[in-house]
Amino acid sequence: MMAKNQVAKKSELNQVKKYLMSESIQSRLSSMLDSRASYFTNSIINLVSSNQRLLACTPESIMKSAMTGASLNLSIDPNLGESAIIPYGDNASWQIMYKGLVQLALRTGKYLKINTIEVYKNQFTSFNRLTEELVADFTIDGEGEVVGYIGYFKLVDGFEKTVFWSRAKTEKHANRYSQAYKRDKKLKKKDSMWTTDFDAMAKKTVLKLMLDKWGVKSIDIQKAVKLDHSNGDEVDPKYPDNPKNEFDDFEEVDNPFEDNDDLKDTPFEKNE
Length: 272
Description:
single chain; alpha+beta; two-stranded antiparallel sheet; 11 helices
């Protein structure tokens, strides 16, 4: 059985390699990336070969997602944490990560400081949403549970913004807007990035929504926000993990009639 699976994996990987090394794709990569085309091709192959679920995705969707990252000059290497290619069934989607957002913001030349971090129980005292005053001690190492996530930026003109989300609010956001996370919880799996790296996804979410609402947005930042979690199609983007592409405002009003566990009519219903 193991040998059969290895043969299937090798066959799927060869299909991806064949697609990437085709004359038309290499010509397109060379025109876009010049001398970086070879490195880019190898980075896709390495990524796919290390992820069994990505091997099940179509080469076309993998390529389109990877090109989204390349068009923003963001790496898809998981070790760098700038952007990621995520499998959803047989289609891949592109996802911006918090380090990628920081990179795009700094490139504008408008941000003096920008960061997002976890806030631990022993560090946190209070946060005033009206004055945006955070009372916390970040001179000590975080210990115990993570109680929330904070995003902060300061522009060169002096404007500052601080946003704090509690762990509970972040969990509610993930449960409401990520179909993959809801599926993981229901089926007790660990496929979604919200499941495997909740803190990284939480920091990315706080920073993304903060920049989208209050930040100075370059064309690249606008593109990254628009195509986050999408198939990479700028004209008609599809969002497999959040089909309506909805997301929280910071002044969210609870819906007492919402059923967070309902998977009906989601992309995952047919897979169960």
